[in-house]
Amino acid sequence: MKREIKTTNDGSKTLFINDLNENYHSHHGALQEAEHVFIKNGLNLVNDYEINILELGFGTGLNVLVTINEYLKTDKNHIINYFTLEKYPINESEIEDLAYFEHFDNPEFKEIYQKIHQAEWGKSVEIINGFNLKKIQCDFFDLKDIELPKINLVYFDCFGARVQPDLWEKPLFELVSDKMSVNGLLTTYSSKGSVRRILQELNFKVEKKQGPPGKREMINAVKL
Fold it and tell me: Strand runs (DSSP E) across 8-158, as ranges?
């Protein structure tokens, strides 16, 4: 599918898929959305020593980068193992044009950004000390066959239900739930009533949270 680079309202870029009329991130601000949904309402709410993150899906790699940025702000007395699924990886030209490292003050972020995207698919790579990344190229429904440690944080960042409704139905959420630990947190930009009901059926405690810029609400769900 043909993709083009677009600049969002906070100055960070995103990819736009013409055939689907769909952005990879919010046009209100790609970086703001990632930090609000997956850091403020995700990573910052998990206090485990070893944090196993599952992301659906890797996309532009922005969520990995903001997670590393937040990790570097801490005393780094914990470990993050980050597992991310992606069926259609972006290409080198797109990676170069997105240039997310330009939005961070840390001079090492260009190298970190490159290391994220150059990491070999299917292998665990230490991006920085204490932060391990494993990119897995697969369909999200292949999750059932992927061996993972118990996941205590899920970044559910699939394309919207308008273009991929099957990713927001019970079968995929069941697969994700099976990989999670008790008290594990799932965070997503979605606030769909059907998603809340599915998660409640799967024994999650669901909470509506204030959404990122341009969106009124989002969902946090804790596995009981």
Answer: 13-17, 22-23, 50-56, 79-86, 124-128, 131-137, 151-156
Which residues, at least 6 apart from 10, have a Cβ–Cβ distance to it below 8 Å? 28, 29, 30, 31, 32, 213
Mean pLDDT of 180-190: 98
Nearest partner of 140 among 159, 126, 123, 116, judged by Cα: 159
Name every residue whose Cβ is closer than 8 Å to that of residue 138 and which is 6 or more positions away in sequence: 85, 86, 87, 146
- Residue 151 contacts residue 53 (beta carbons within 8 Å): yes
Tell me the mean pLDDT in the region 207-218: 96
Q: Residue 144's pLDDT is what?
A: 96
| Domain covering 29-223, topology | Rossmann fold (3.40.50)
Q: To the nearest whole number, what is the mean pLDDT of the chain?
A: 96
